[in-house]
Amino acid sequence: MTDTFEWPVRVYYEDTDVGGVVFYANYLKFMERARTEWLRSRGFEQDVLIREQGVLFAVASAEIRYRAPARFNDLLHVTARVTDKGRSRMSFEQTVYRPADDRHLTDGLIRVACLDAETFRPRPIPEEMQRILFQ
């Protein structure tokens, strides 16, 4: 549907657990950063969307598969690609991999809803955004 977007993420000490590997929930944070940067790369800042368009995006569901661990100081790349869209939603296929050894670490299918910033009820993605995001 759209090209695959890629964003680098460095693993900090705070991202790891007592075993020295990335804590499982932090992969969701890495994926969130990649989706935010994907929006930014297309000219949309989330605070501006709330203020000027009255919309925000929230995760409706997440399916994650862990394949291999990342460790402190690893440089990771996180991808985001829209695989499905509707009037008020979109789905992202995301991966986290380590380029140093080309190791695929995590897969995710993240479903995001467009919500009214005041009521938190679903609302259509603004038409201008759709044109830019899904061209």
UniProtKB/TrEMBL annotation:
Gene3D superfamilies: Hotdog Thioesterase. It comes from the Bacteria. Keywords: Hydrolase. Pfam families: 4HBT_2. The keyword Hydrolase applies. Belongs to the 4-hydroxybenzoyl-CoA thioesterase family. NCBIfam families: thio_ybgC, YbgC/FadM family acyl-CoA thioesterase. This is Tol-pal system-associated acyl-CoA thioesterase. It comes from Natronospira bacteriovora.
